[in-house]
Amino acid sequence: MAPPIGQCAVGAALAWLVAKDVLGHSRPFFAPIAVVVCIGVGLGQRLRRVVELVVGVSLGVGVGDLLVSWIGSGVWQIALVVALAMAIAVLLDSGSLIVLQAGSSAVLVATLLPPSGTGGLDRMLDALVGGLMGLAAVALLPASPSALAKRHAMGMFGALSDALRGIAEAIEKSDADLAASALEAARGTQTSVEEFKQALRTSREIATISPLHRHRRTRLEGYEKAAVPLDHALRNARVLARRAIVALDGSSRLPPWLPGALRELNDATLLLRDELATGRPPDKSVRAILSVASRQGNERWGFSADVMIAQLRSITVDLLQATGTEREEAVAALPPLEDGPGPAGPDETRGEKDLDGANVTSTS
What we know:
Layout: H1 2-22, H2 30-39, H3 46-71, H4 75-92, H5 96-111, H6 119-140, H7 145-173, H8 176-187, H9 190-209, H10 217-247, H11 258-278, H12 283-294, H13 303-322, H14 327-332, H15 346-349
Helix pairs in contact: 1-2, 1-6, 2-3, 2-6, 3-4, 3-5, 3-6, 4-5, 7-8, 7-9, 7-10, 7-11, 8-10, 9-10, 10-13, 11-12, 11-13, 12-13
Transmembrane segments: 26-43, 50-68, 74-92, 127-148
Pfam families: FUSC_2 (PF13515)
Region (Disordered): 330-364
């Protein structure tokens, strides 16, 4: 949290200085407030926040100044000013920030800052100054976009690695409880997925705004290609773990090569993580994943085993796509399955759900 806190502190001070000493506004408190709202301590959408902030403050101040100058200030006047400002904001844009800023600005005008001369215009300018200073603070005191993406990607890669390793161990030991533990851990991974996607949006924004980090946009491309396929791989890993619990009750035969393939896929996952982190082309991880794909059997073992093999194939394709491989090429790398009854094809299973409600993607 240190970078956004530092950006807020420096930006707020500079916004006050510019609005007070350069523009000559006596009480430009909208300027530092705008900096804090613009930067915040969350991730992403700062450009949108600046626009919403300026429009919201302008709308609230405009409506407030106009109405209060006509109807005065009081209890019912506050209610009317706030209602009108927020209603107009909703009609313009349903974003929560613009509506809240319109309402809060209207309250300030109707209670503490009665209209006088160019006061309304000055407050709009203060909001604009604060928003621009917030963007300047992000641009000139930026967090590293590649470091931000890397840190959150580690959580996704780690979750997938843990799931694959846990399932492999469960199969090797014929222990359904270990498979259940792997499933339980995998079920908590969606937060990591969402945080990674949000971190990517923030990283792209920083790389766009900041001249210091524009050269890092190419480093982010690898993570952008990997984001959705990694999400799919985690969802398929959850289905794989759930089916492993059923298969390990002793009623199903499992292919002897399956735990080894899972461990090798785990190693390939960690290799892809390291290559993306260093900005190297994922050549080694592609070869490692293709090696796992080429040695997967195509025989039938029974329903539970076939479902597990289908999910392994899906995860393999997902990881290949995470390296930037086209889906058709990734699917073609898998050995064809033997004819006969088995798991449904991709179009039939894409809408299925696992116990978490995660979409299942299959390439069988």
